[in-house]
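Please, structure for the following, as tokens.
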Amino acid sequence: DDPQRMKAALDYAEEELISHRTRNQAFRLEILTNDGGVELLRSDTSPYPERIAALLKEHDNLTFIACANALLKLQERGIKVELLPNVQSHHTAIDTIVDRLESGWHYLKV
């Protein structure tokens, strides 16, 4: 839930998206948040909602995903969770990571 780490992740993502687009390379990027990182994608806590919206508008090969388990834990604590528009949450972070790795994706922890 550190805003500096969130900014670093968004900066890195934007650099990679632009770099691959410039080189005309097929590229798909998913930013998966877990634990305190889901704060990045919550409508009431994200320090960067406008930037996320702009990135999603500009890059159709970008997806933001919030860990379903992390969201469930927040709800169990009585916290109403509303995600930013166009943010997905279908599976746990670990299930998503394993699925992507088995499909040949690369994983980078920021």
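The mean pLDDT is 94. The helical segments are 3-22, 49-58, 68-76, 93-102.
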